[in-house]
Amino acid sequence: xxxxDDPTTLRDFDDVASDARAALDAQIATATAAGKxxxxxxxxxxxxxxxxFSQFDSRSLAAVALNQDDKFSVQEVSAAKQAIAQxxxxxxxxxxxxxxxxxxxxxxxxxSAYGSMSPEERKAAGWSDQLYSAAVASYNxxxxxxxxxxxxxxxxxxxxxxILDGLGSSTDESNMSLASYLSDNGS
Length: 187
Description:
The protein is mainly alpha-helical. The protein has 8 helices and 2 strands, in the order αββααααααα.
């Protein structure tokens, strides 16, 4: 949600919260018209209609969860927090799946997800600056390790074991390199 025609300017968060309040009020009115009450917790009671946050964008959902202007009930806030936790888990899982087993790609996915969130969305989801810093550090470490192994593979026919040979070499003939040890012992 942006203000005006500038896609980099976020709408005022109070306006987002007011729109979220109106959307919840519309759901309450629809449930009431159907002779039901809007439920904010899972239930199989036929006299209730569960709240539907699927049409709420993440910033609107954050407005409910953070409840900065006390526009929402305790039940609404709790349900919004659960919905944010589910979305956050889905984002992390999707980032993990798309990265396969590449830690640098996973960290990059987290960095990208973090960057796409507004400050309010991060706060509601519990995505702190420390998480961002850890993701950046993880990305840098994984990328550096990949570069080291990539360079070793390009310059040596033994690949990663070539690095290990370098770690174990010395002028003392009794010192066996780790790579030689692993090769000699069938590992």
